[in-house]
C-alpha cells in the first residue's frame, strides 16, 4: 500500500472499569498512529464511561447505546462499523490489550492486494496479566493463508477451535462490506461466522508473532459460557454454512459430504463433551479460582473416578489449601520426562 491507510478499531464495551484503562493505553502506545477508535458503550453502569472520557484524544470516538447484551453483540459490531471511515478494520475486546507493535507489523500484510484478512498469535493471560498459553498457526500453509481461496475451511469446518483469534485480526473493509458486514448467526458471536464467510472471498495472511493478549478472568464471557450448548450451536451453524454456500463451495472446487461431516463431529463430541468439567477445572485453576476449579473437577470425577483423576483432585485440594497451582507444574514435569525418554530411546 503506497500511502498510510487509516485503521478503524472497533470496541464494544460493557462494565469494564477494571481493565479498560490498560486496553486504552495499549492502543495509545501503538507505534503506528494513523488510527481512529470507535468505542461503543453498551450501557455501562460501573464508571467505565468516566475512564474512557478521561483520555483526551480526538481519535477516540465514544458512543453510548442502551444495553443490548451479548445476544446482539454482532449487531453492536455492525453499528460500530457504520461509524468508522478507515480502509482497514481491527477489533479489540474491552478487557484485552495489544503489544505496541501490533498495528505497525500487521498493516504490511495488506501490501498484497489479494489479502483480505490478517491474523497472528494470541497470548492468553489471566486477570493479573500472567501468561497462560498461546494460540498456534496451522502448519499447513494452504490452511494458514487460505491459499487457494477456501483452503482454510479444511480446518475451520473440522477443528474444535478457530485458529483465528479475534483481537489479532485486521480486515480489509471492502471485503467486509462485500459480505454485508459482520455475519450474524444465532447463538454465536461476530468473529467465527465472519472468518468462515471471508474464507470464500480471498487470501489470508498469518503473522507468527503475538499480536494480542486475551484476558480470561472469572467473570469473562468465555469462562462462564455453557460450552456444551456452544458446541451444539456451532455444529448446527457449520452444517447450515455448507448447505447455504453449496454453489460457492462447488465453484471453488470444494465438496463436503454432510454424512461424513456429521460422523466426524460426533466423534469429537464423544471425546470433548465428557471433558468439559475437567477443562473448566484447569482453566479456573490457571485463573486462581481454586474453589470453582475443585467444584468442576468433582463433576468430572462422577463420570471418571479413575486413579489418575483422583490424584489430580488430591493435588487440586492441596492447591486450594496452599493457594499455589500444584496441578499444572506436575503435568509440565510429566511432559518433560516423557520428552526426555522419547529423545533418548
How is the topology of this model organized?
Layout: E1 7-13, H1 20-28, E2 35-41, H2 48-53, E3 60-64, H3 73-82, E4 88-91, H4 102-106, E5 115-125, E6 131-134, H5 141-145, H6 153-156, E7 170-172, H7 173-178, H8 191-198, E8 203-215, H9 221-224, H10 227-244, H11 246-251, H12 258-286, H13 290-303, H14 307-322, H15 327-343
Parallel strand pairs: 1-2, 1-4, 2-3, 5-8
Antiparallel strand pairs: 4-7, 5-6, 5-7
Helix pairs in contact: 10-12, 12-13, 13-14
Helix/strand structural class: alpha/beta
| Principal-axis shape | globular
Return the domain count: 2
N-to-C series of helices and strands: EHEHEHEHEEHHEHHEHHHHHHH
Task: Assign the CATH class of the largest domain.
Answer: Alpha Beta
Helix count, per DSSP? 15
Q: What is the number of strand segments?
A: 8
CATH topology of the largest domain: Spore Coat Polysaccharide Biosynthesis Protein SpsA, Chain A
Radius of gyration: 21 Å
Overall pLDDT score = 89
Low-confidence stretches: 330-345
User: Tell me about the biggest sheet?
Assistant: 8 strands, mixed
Could you say what the CATH architecture of the largest domain is?
Answer: Alpha-Beta Complex
Compute the separation of the termini in Å.
52 Å
Supply the CATH superfamily name of the largest domain: Spore Coat Polysaccharide Biosynthesis Protein SpsA, Chain A
Helix content: 40-55%
Q: Which percent range describes the beta-strand content?
A: 15-25%
Amino acid at each position: 500500500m503506497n500511502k498510510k491507510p487509516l485503521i478503524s478499531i472497533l470496541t464494544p464495551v460493557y462494565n469494564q472499569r477494571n481493565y479498560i484503562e490498560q486496553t486504552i493505553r495499549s492502543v495509545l502506545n501503538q507505534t503506528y498512529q494513523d488510527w481512529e477508535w470507535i468505542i461503543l458503550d453498551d450501557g455501562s453502569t460501573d464508571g467505565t464511561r468516566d475512564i474512557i472520557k478521561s483520555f483526551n484524544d480526538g481519535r477516540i470516538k465514544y458512543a453510548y447505546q442502551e444495553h443490548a447484551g451479548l445476544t446482539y453483540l454482532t449487531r453492536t459490531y455492525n453499528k460500530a462499523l457504520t461509524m468508522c471511515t478507515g480502509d482497514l478494520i481491527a477489533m479489540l475486546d474491552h478487557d484485552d490489550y495489544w503489544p505496541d507493535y501490533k498495528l505497525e507489523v500487521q498493516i504490511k500484510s495488506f501490501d498484497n492486494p489479494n489479502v483480505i484478512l490478517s491474523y497472528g498469535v494470541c497470548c492468553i493471560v489471566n486477570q493479573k496479566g500472567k501468561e497462560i498459553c498461546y494460540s498456534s498457526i496451522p502448519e499447513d500453509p494452504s490452511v494458514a493463508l487460505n491459499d487457494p481461496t477456501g483452503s482454510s475451511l479444511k480446518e475451520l469446518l473440522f477443528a474444535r477451535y478457530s485458529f483465528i483469534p479475534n483481537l489479532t485480526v485486521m480486515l480489509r473493509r471492502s471485503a467486509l462490506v462485500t459480505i454485508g458486514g459482520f455475519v450474524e448467526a444465532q447463538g454465536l458471536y461476530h468473529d467465527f461466522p465472519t472468518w468462515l464467510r471471508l474464507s470464500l472471498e480471498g487470501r489470508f495472511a498469518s503473522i507468527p508473532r503475538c499480536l494480542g493478549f486475551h484476558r480470561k478472568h472469572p467473570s469473562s464471557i468465555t469462562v462462564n459460557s455453557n460450552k456444551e450448548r456452544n458446541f451444539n450451536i456451532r455444529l448446527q451453524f457449520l452444517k447450515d454454512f455448507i448447505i447455504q454456500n453449496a454453489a460457492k463451495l462447488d465453484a471453488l472446487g470444494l465438496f463436503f459430504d454432510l454424512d461424513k461431516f456429521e460422523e466426524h463431529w460426533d466423534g469429537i463430541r464423544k471425546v470433548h463433551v465428557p471433558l468439559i468439567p475437567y477443562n473448566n477445572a484447569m482453566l479456573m485453576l490457571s485463573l486462581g479460582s481454586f474453589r470453582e476449579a475443585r467444584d468442576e473437577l468433582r463433576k468430572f470425577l462422577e463420570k471418571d473416578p479413575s486413579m489418575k483423576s483422583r490424584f489430580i483432585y488430591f493435588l487440586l485440594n492441596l492447591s486450594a489449601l496452599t493457594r499455589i497451582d500444584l496441578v499444572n507444574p506436575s503435568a509440565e514435569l510429566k511432559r518433560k520426562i516423557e520428552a526426555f525418554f522419547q529423545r533418548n530411546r
